[in-house]
């Protein structure tokens, strides 16, 4: 398969049959083909499939098989599920999906999505049984229904809903080129000037220069795209040097810029402010073509001169200032007016222009063209520290995560001054300190936040530990509302994970996350530690035990490579510990080495998940044997990773392995979004995110009218539909014999069925529901409380009380360095970071064998044996 692309065989309107061997098939209906790729959105796919199958897009459900597993189907619910399906079929050309929903396609849905780019391509209708996959052509045709192959429908995996995090805003700096017979500007000023009335502004000294160049928007249709790139014209850029401004020819080729980037960084040269690279040709200002300079000198003629817009006026003023060798700043600068003065103190030069609505023009109203500074503005064009910090502060307010190179480019574009990477980096440090407070002194507020958490939210836990040098070691926080929510409404499962705090001091964020009644993530506690190691994890678990006082056995789930099993069982004596399915699948992918037989590497992840979800030991062995047939090495890895810690058939704790998402991903995304913030601001963001999550789900659940949460209610309804045609024989008040393709016995008192599905997922299976139907019992009386809406509401019943002044910045004037209570951890070297990582030895780590001497530990390229 072309990487990232997949042909979906979409089947609908059929019925499901269970074969003698337990596999599922699909009979009748129709099959259509659709092309998708990594850019396909779940919403677009829903609309396309609904249209093809004549189904209401609001009721449609999509399911698919994992490669090698024809017993269970995965449900597609969002974009993440769709991309995960594409990854699972990474080595396949086609994949079967099964579509179900209420008949009747709403044509208005197409109109709503008409303005969006649709990356779903309709392929010609195919007969799934008879036509080979290679016969599928990607062409747009009308779809005619054909008979399709069959596969059964089964809800397999429920999604773990991610925590919501605010997206960081980013600026888009536009470029606008204009051309003439003599010169063209390289780009327009930043859009920021339309709102910053007091921003300093210096003329841009980067210009595009080509006397005989054609219009930048024109192109020759006879040329190929490659020819067009080769013929891209060269432009010129001003640079300030000992002899004044320098003009250098530049190329638009990005690859040249990338090649020179490393060398420029090593030499600490100025930052490349264009996407272009400097060529070997250079001109000083004395050599600049006189015709161009003469034109620029006449860009501003005086009072009464009209321009089409304020943007055109700014561009003209830039060229005028460069040609006359002075620097100005715009004191008033918006869409309706612009007033500029020379930056030299006391100089009389000034200009004012404003909009004339009647003429639809922008006109110069005042102009004093006399400089009394003697050219000092051009001589002193290097920015002061305060000026640079103020400019960077304005940029960071609009886009907090801009990088030094991006800021350097925008300063060059807006002010015509080129700065080194170090200058801009230091300016960013000072600007952030002004905006956010001192990063270092922010640690001094950690004792304050511990006091405020307990004061504003009585019953909560907050504890701070420092080392002998008063440096941060560990900080633990757990709110009472989260503790009560976990104990009153969640299953006794906690996912343990760690993510980087994205700090210069390399701290880690440790988290304990529960699962609510709708399989959504529910944060219970978090800790910030100076390093992720065994001691700090053990400390975190001890604090967690103090916060969660329960006699009920807990099930902890973590990445196997973190090695937390021993610490968990030491702190929580009666607990169970399992390995995260998400991390196991990722590790399995990494450790699946060739050679591969049969269905190949692409089928291995599906078989691995099927083995993990197998309810019976013999079924687990069946899937692992299929893995052995494809790759003996992969089989050895699976057997050596303690199946009793992750498989449904062997694990003794609370069932959890239906959750195959990365629970720590929301935390990692949040830390990425606020990576430049102080530690107090990061704690504030964590608390705010958890608080908003509670409030949002509290509001959403107040509108629910069912007894079970939406995902569980849908599961019960699907099973009830499958139970309608089953034959049931009543053996006693508690025992029922149910005939499907095979015979199963249901014991409603023990809440058990011989199919083991009731025990595995916690909800009654189709056989149990069929038994309830003939006995007049309600299925909801046999559903666990932790799947009910009442349990969900109990989880989110208590909100987190606000903490006043938590986001107040810490100024350097507020704290004396001698009175610092908490210091940040010392930055760690790469070697220390490597040693700090908790990784256990891979049981199936590949050993290199030399093909010459047949010895272990080296290859033939480094072999020293002379054969």
From TrEMBL:
<feature type="compositionally biased region" description="Polar residues">
    <location>
        <begin position="212"/>
        <end position="225"/>
    </location>
</feature>
<dbReference type="InterPro" id="IPR004332">
    <property type="entry name" value="Transposase_MuDR"/>
</dbReference>
<dbReference type="GO" id="GO:0008270">
    <property type="term" value="F:zinc ion binding"/>
</dbReference>
<dbReference type="Pfam" id="PF04434">
    <property type="entry name" value="SWIM"/>
</dbReference>
<feature type="region of interest" description="Disordered">
    <location>
        <begin position="168"/>
        <end position="199"/>
    </location>
</feature>
<protein>
    <submittedName>
        <fullName>Uncharacterized protein LOC111410698</fullName>
    </submittedName>
</protein>
<feature type="domain" description="SWIM-type">
    <location>
        <begin position="736"/>
        <end position="776"/>
    </location>
</feature>
<dbReference type="InterPro" id="IPR006564">
    <property type="entry name" value="Znf_PMZ"/>
</dbReference>
<feature type="compositionally biased region" description="Low complexity">
    <location>
        <begin position="168"/>
        <end position="190"/>
    </location>
</feature>
<keyword id="KW-0863">Zinc-finger</keyword>
<keyword id="KW-0862">Zinc</keyword>
<dbReference type="Pfam" id="PF10551">
    <property type="entry name" value="MULE"/>
</dbReference>
<dbReference type="InterPro" id="IPR018289">
    <property type="entry name" value="MULE_transposase_dom"/>
</dbReference>
<dbReference type="Pfam" id="PF00564">
    <property type="entry name" value="PB1"/>
</dbReference>
<dbReference type="InterPro" id="IPR000270">
    <property type="entry name" value="PB1_dom"/>
</dbReference>
<feature type="region of interest" description="Disordered">
    <location>
        <begin position="212"/>
        <end position="271"/>
    </location>
</feature>
<dbReference type="Pfam" id="PF03108">
    <property type="entry name" value="DBD_Tnp_Mut"/>
</dbReference>
<keyword id="KW-0479">Metal-binding</keyword>
<dbReference type="InterPro" id="IPR007527">
    <property type="entry name" value="Znf_SWIM"/>
</dbReference>
